[in-house]
Write a structure and sequence with these properties.
The protein has helices at 2-30, 48-55, 73-89, 104-109, 156-168, 190-198, 208-211, 232-243, 258-261, 263-270, 306-310, 349-352, 402-414, 437-468, and strands spanning 61-67, 93-99, 116-121, 124-129, 134-135, 151-154, 173-178, 201-206, 220-224, 248-251, 274-282, 294-295, 298-299, 317-318, 321-325, 331-338, 344-346, 364-365, 369-376, 381-386, 425-428. It has 469 residues and is of the alpha+beta class. The protein has 14 helices and 21 strands. Helices cover 35% and strands 22% of the residues.
Length: 469
């Protein structure tokens, strides 16, 4: 009788344990994407922008990951792991991995020659190179991000989310970059052009001397770092374009003779109540991270800068012209970038070329604004006017929030609501552990043979104890 009761209790306990296991499994499965991120700085947690973008996908999207086996696996694995997190949020995004060497025909079909993620929805595709998702703050520009360094920045989430937004959007925009005045060209701004392209904004150069007018398909006219003034005829054409609802992105460049030579550029700014002081903003500092001519301004309250401010992504301006604002009827002019009250405007531009930045009685007292967003009285965007342009150059645009600020400004003007501002994640470099043959053999024997035998021995011992009892 006692043995029967004992066996019955054992059976009941076993069934109860199995039942609890099943219930617990069903409960954990019902939690869906619930997980706890215990990594430093929440490295594996997706941003709210990414989650909302993924949840808005209604049609299937295929993420085709083409990997060159010669590339560092730790980097390609980070990208594929991130895409698997995307899949958990919305299973309409399917992740497939292909070896470039084993699938050359498929790679050629999508124009892929190196490790790349190709996002595909229907007949539309968006290619994002894996190499461009990694930058190293400890290296010189142009060096390989996978080489020796103490840390690296991973921008994969921003690029993949931007790619998904542009892939699933049917809207396209055209940005024309004015040339003919020694402005920055598309080669100087190639990284900006690439990011704009990923957001369905295509940039191309425009010569008003040749075309005679701003093309009718223009979403925004960009004038970046002009070194000579606009002609009267060009200024007239630009005003006609603006009066018909055109959008202007005007970003000044350093010019020693700007005060005497920039008559038409200054008049365009004056149309919006913005005055060029013809002085370079200087920010005296008690630390040596940046020189006095390099300023990390404070953000104003505007949709261009709000996400940057909340993410602590700063725009770094260098050789920026100090601007002033006057009220203009029918317009709303909002400061975007502002210096501190300790700043001053250096009027001796010739001295700057000789590295002379001593403050004197001829200099202007700060604070100054370094950028404005101009809108109509009903809130429609009209222009963005900035005092500097060097932050958009390829060698500077990946610092802090420079790229995001530039892209957000142009998105604001063209009316593109899909602004993505996701802070790059700084990761420690992976460390490679090299094992000797005896060490590898010891690990194999202990994990495959010794530990399992210990558990078996413990089980046999407990069975023997209970049998004797």
């Amino acid at each position: 009788m006692g043995k029967w009761i004992s066996r019955t209790n054992a059976t009941v306990i076993s069934i109860a344990a199995i039942g609890i296991f099943i219930v617990l499994t069903l409960f954990l499965n019902s939690l869906g994407t619930f997980q706890v991120d215990l990594t430093q700085n929440r490295q594996n947690t997706l941003s709210d922008q990414t989650i909302s973008t993924l949840k808005a996908i209604n049609e299937p999207v295929e993420a085709m990951v083409f990997i060159n086996p010669q590339d560092a696996q730790v980097y390609t694995r980070e990208v594929t792991d991130l895409l698997q997190e995307y899949h958990k949020i919305n299973n309409k995004l399917k992740v497939k991995q292909y070896d470039l060497l084993q699938n050359p025909e498929l790679a050629r079909q999508y124009g892929v020659a190196e490790s790349t993620v190709v996002l595909k929805q229907g007949e539309r595709t968006k290619a994002i190179q894996i190499y461009n998702m990694f930058t190293s703050p400890d290296q010189q520009d142009g060096q390989d991000a996978s080489s020796e360094a103490s840390s690296y920045q991973f921008t994969g989430e921003q690029k993949l989310t931007s790619g998904l937004l542009s892939l699933t959007s049917s809207k396209t925009y055209k940005a024309y970059l004015l040339n003919g005045h020694n402005e920055f060209d598309t080669a100087t701004l190639s990284l900006l052009a690439q990011q704009l392209s990923e957001e369905n904004i295509n940039m191309s150069e425009l010569s008003l001397a040749q075309e005679g007018a701003v093309p009718t398909d223009s979403s925004v006219l960009m004038i970046v770092a002009p070194q000579t003034d606009l002609s009267d005829a060009e200024t007239k054409v630009i005003r006609e374009y603006m009066n018909k609802g055109g959008k202007l992105f005007l970003s000044l460049g350093f010019n020693e003779k700007a005060k005497t030579d920039w008559k038409n550029i200054d008049s365009l700014m004056n149309d919006y109540g913005i005055t060029d002081t013809h002085a370079v903003a200087v920010e005296p500092k008690g630390q040596s991270l940046y020189d006095p001519l390099t300023i990390v301004p404070e953000y104003g309250n505007h949709e261009i800068t709000d996400k940057l401010a909340s993410s602590n992504l700063y725009t770094i301006m260098s050789l920026s012209i100090a601007l002033k604002q006057e009220a203009k009827q029918g317009l709303t002019v909002t400061p975007l970038l502002t210096t501190t009250s300790n700043s001053y405007g250096e009027t001796n531009l010739s001295g700057l070329l000789e590295s002379k930045t001593e403050r004197d009685n001829n200099d202007l007292a700060g604070p100054f604004d370094l950028g404005f967003a101009v809108g109509s009285s009903d809130g429609k965007p009209k222009a963005v006017v900035l005092g500097g342009s060097t932050f958009m150059m390829d060698q500077s645009i990946q610092q802090q929030g420079n790229l995001d600020f530039a892209v957000n400004s142009i998105n604001y003007l063209v009316g593109n609501d899909s602004q993505v501002t996701i802070r790059p994640k700084t990761q420690d470099q992976y460390q490679t552990a090299t094992l000797t043959l005896p060490q590898a053999r010891a690990i194999l024997i202990s994990t495959v043979i010794v530990f399992p035998l210990l558990f078996v021995a413990a089980g046999v011992f407990l069975w023997w104890r209970r049998r004797r009892a």
